[in-house]
Amino acid sequence: MSRPPLGGLLSGEPRVIAAGVDVLADALAQQAVPVDRVDWRPPPPGTEDALATVLGDPAHAEADARATGRMLTARPHLVDVRPAHEVLGLRPGDFLHAGPPLDLDRASGPMRGALIGAMLLEGLAETPEEAEKALARGAATLEPCHHHGAVGPMAGVVSPSMWMLVVEDAEHGGTAYCSLNEGLGKVLRYGAYGPEVIERLGWMGAVLGPALAGAVRRHGPLDLTAVMAQALQMGDELHNRNRAATSLLLRELAADLVEAGTEAGTAGGAAQALRFAAGNDHFFLNFAMAAAKCATDAARGVPGSGLVVAMARNGTDFGIQVSGTGDRWFTGPAGVPDGLYLGSYGPGDANPDIGDSAITETAGMGGFALAAAPAIVRFVGGEVPDAIAATRRMYEITMAEHPALQIPLLGFRGTPVGIDVTRVVRTGILPVIDTGIAGREAGTGQVGAGLVEPPGGIFTDALHALAENG
Questions:
Q1: In the prediction, which pLDDT does 4 show?
Q2: How far apart are CA 345 and CA 10, in angstroms?
Q3: Assigned domain for 235 exists
Q4: What is d(CA 26, CA 210) in angstroms, rounded to the nearest whole number?
Q5: What pLDDT does residue 21 have?
Q6: What's the pLDDT at 293?
Q7: Looking at the structure, do residues 317 and 230 belong to the same domain, yes or no?
Q8: Which of these, 62, 102, 361, 416, could form a disulfide with 395 (CB 3.0-4.6 Å)?
Q9: How many other CB atoms sit within 10 Å of the CB of residue 15?
């Protein structure tokens, strides 16, 4: 069989791929030459030996496959709603917070504001000034939500009287918890603590929590993956856009809310709960967070695996945990999100990134599923092509595609899932997270929403730890 002459290579239109060389790509584009750009940078200096050690270990690929398989086969089900003092054993003065461990003297404005609000809610202080003084005296103990199998959005402060979603993994047996969503604006999780904030939290404890508990117990275990899979096909990405998921949840629980309330003689409370949830498009976010925590926790503790099982921010530090390195945190400075601001607020009012809600990205949702939610750009900024490109970029640093969470716009391709430390370091591509923006000053509340990336050095640190463990 004859082969075409070498000159045949030049007889058709050239296809140019530019890997991390913008000068070349820009010059070709100016000459109307089609060019495919690949976002690639060489690995940071000093990582070559660590990469060789980890990737050269014959057990590494098997460990990654095992950890990823456990994450993808998790089956999170909502089974109950109960107070934090019952399910987490919190006592008066015990508070959980978002992100890696944090001392009060390094706490940001919104974290301090949320702690002040929690002190007021729990009756440990009468005024914000008293709360601040009590906190300074050490009246409260602070521990990360993640250390208790829990997650909390933004400041993520959990106090004993707050009601928690209880989500169990029907496949692997783990349990995860998350608080209830307050809505947007001036809310505790964004660091606000005014009277309206405390009043709302009191109502959530007295009415919303018990109403949801009655509905869930009457309904029986609710498959959250099924809800999330449908919501993705209806335009959600399950971090900053949860409109479809919230509607699907209410459709599933509405009758049980009414019937449970009627039986308990609290039909008015059931109606209030329905109105509150229906008026809060972010209501499902906390359910998605608990489901994601269930899935990522199932992948923990696999020796040799570079799978990221937690990304979390406390308003000061951004931290990750990796399957093969146990409970160790790898931390760096949290960055300020780039996005859209509310009213007269601007970047100068923004606090560095905060919250456990990046657990959604860790499990293949949120920023990793932006292509499923084109309308999200109206909330976080950018254009629709940017959202699609962001999801496509995440396939470069992940180990798998989610079998249940699929993106219609990409031909029902599964969302990219399973962040791989080695791929992040090798490519220089960082995970994309879409997030809310908290005001820098305590008591401000939400000032905007946007996109943010982790500091690259924490992945390099995790890689070196993997190499040392190996």
A1: 54
A2: 55
A3: yes
A4: 60
A5: 60
A6: 98
A7: no
A8: 416
A9: 9
Clarify whether residues 202 and 222 are in a common domain. yes
* Whether residue 369 sits in one domain with residue 246: no
Angle at 78 between CA 76 and CA 84, to 5 degrees: 110
Structure tokens at 259: 């019937």
89/187 same-domain check: yes
Residue 135 in 3-state DSSP? helix
Question: For residue 319, what is the domain's CATH number?
Answer: 3.90.1700.10
43 assigned to some structural domain? no
Summarised one tens digit per residue, pLDDT across range 358-417 is: 999 999 999 999 999 998 888 788 889 999 999 999 999 999 999 999 999 999 999 999
User: Whole domain around residue 26: which residue ranges?
Assistant: 9-34
Question: CA 219 to CA 364: how far, in whole Å?
Answer: 28
Grouping H, G, I as helix, E, B as strand and the rest as coil, residue 114 is: helix
Return the SS3 of 291: helix
Q: What is the DSSP string of 364-405?
A: T-GGGGGGG-GGGHHHH-S-HHHHHHHHHHHGGGEEEEEEEE
Q: What residues contact 324, with CB distance under 8 A and at least 6 apart?
A: 63, 67, 302, 303, 304, 305, 306, 307, 466, 469
Buried b (16+ CB within 10 A) or exposed e, 95-122: bbbbbbbbeeeebbbbbbbbbbbbbbbb
For residue 378, the model assigns a pLDDT of 81
HEC string of 65-96 equals HHHHHHHHHCCEEEEEEEEHHHHCCCCCCEEE
Q: Which two tokens stand for residue 307?
A: 């799978």
Identify whether residues 345 and 425 lie together within a single domain.
yes
What pLDDT, on the 0 to 100 scale, is given for residue 102?
97
Give me the phi and psi of 81, to 5 degrees please: -135, 120
Measured CA distances, 102 to 78, 125, 151 (Å): 30, 22, 15
The residues, any chain, with a CB within 8 Å of residue 243's CB and separated by 6 or more, are 235, 236, 281
Give pTM, 2 decimals: 0.91
Are 14 and 153 in the same domain? no
Instruction: Give the Cα separation of 424 and 362 in Å (integer).
Output: 13
Strands 446-452 and 338-341: antiparallel
Packing angle of the helix pair 109-121, 128-136 (nearest 10 deg)? 110
- Could you say which of 289, 311, 332 is where a domain stops? 289
Query: Integer distance in angstroms from the first to the last C-alpha of the chain?
Result: 51
Q: Report yes or no on 3 lying in a domain.
A: no
User: pLDDT digits over 62-72, tens only?
Assistant: 999 999 999 99
What is the total count of domains within the chain? Answer: 3
Domain match, 318 and 272 both: no
